[in-house]
Write a structure and sequence with these properties.
single chain; 154 residues; mainly alpha; two-stranded antiparallel sheet; 5 helices
Amino acid sequence: MMPISSGNEKSVIREPLLAGILSFLFMGLGQAYNGQRRKGYMFFASYIGLAILYFILLRVFNEPFPKGGKEIQHTSPSYIVTAIFSFVICISNIYDAYRSAKRINESNEIVVLTPGKSSFVFLRTIFLWFISIIVLFIGLMFLFAFFAFFLSKH
């Protein structure tokens, strides 16, 4: 990442290969590196949506949920459908990060770099979002356990 200065504006040359590698390592991180955090969030949300789709398809095809040490059947329709969608979204995520970095470099597009607005903000937001969901889930479990205990006494 090399800064290019022209007056008061700063532009940064993005490394397309690095953007692609970051997207490969974590869905949407390459877009955040390119300064396209919203697009990165969309790719990450689509990946979470695939996990939800997998469990919905398990119910549609009446497949049992994987338990304990049981291995997932790789020939089940729900596994095949989500594997295909995962592959397509993953490849498009990597290609988009690579292509966006090249486009930014070719067009000399200025990517605003303000303190704290980096890929780490993206990761921090995803992490906090994940922790919030876990806390909400645990809270709901305690709430359901409390009501189950309360209703069993009456």
